[in-house]
Design goal:
31% of the residues lie in helices and 32% in strands. The protein is an alpha+beta fold.
Length: 193
């Protein structure tokens, strides 16, 4: 089972790398130009485009910001045709193994829609920081299903326990930190401005 999960992750990484290369080519940017715009090294960008590395959530967030997409929009672009109904077993799962973050795209993907649902899971002690939102002014609703989560935005930290929900607009850096001894599972509702 573990080998199947790794093979599926590798296939998503390969499609994701190809899409990242397409987005850069569509704009006529060199790796150097993209590196300047994103703050990511040319070698890391090149390795991500060739699927030699699995991009981290932070890296994807920076690239989404440069390309004006949410992470869900980018990930939906590497999936097959969009559906109206997305069964639990078919919902795309992406992992940032380095940070202990697992992201499940719950909503059926569609580039024309403004809202989406994402299930996030962070392992105990995981700390996930984004230096900027993929789209400035992005509205987020964070509902904790299990565990405890600290969310920092606009230099204010909000502590959320099971059942709590935080609504905010994201303009700058954010941080999601799993506090306590247990993993945290939460729903993230994202609405484009």
């Amino acid at each position: 089972m573990k080998q199947l999960d790794e093979a599926a992750t590798d296939a998503v990484d390969a499609r994701l790398g190809a899409r990242l290369a397409e987005l850069r080519a569509e704009r006529g940017w060199s790796l150097g130009e993209l590196a300047e715009r994103s703050g990511v090294s040319k070698s890391t960008l090149s390795r991500a485009e060739r699927a030699e590395i699995s991009p981290t959530a932070s890296l994807l967030n920076r690239l989404c910001g440069v390309y004006g997409r949410t992470m869900s929009q980018l990930l939906s672009e590497v999936e097959s045709e969009p559906a109206l109904l997305l069964r639990a077993a078919e919902q795309p799962v992406w992992q940032d193994r380095a940070s202990g973050f697992v992201r499940r795209s719950v909503s059926p993907p569609h580039a024309g829609l403004r809202g989406e649902l994402v299930e996030g899971r962070l392992t105990a002690g995981a700390d996930l920081a984004y230096d900027r939102p993929p789209v400035p002014g992005l509205e987020q609703h964070i509902w904790v299903l299990e565990g405890a989560l600290d969310v920092t935005a606009q230099e204010v930290t909000h502590h959320l326990d099971t059942g709590d929900c935080l609504r905010l607009r994201v303009w700058g850096p954010t941080r999601f930190r799993c506090v306590g001894d247990a993993d945290v599972r939460y729903v993230l509702a994202v609405v484009l401005p």
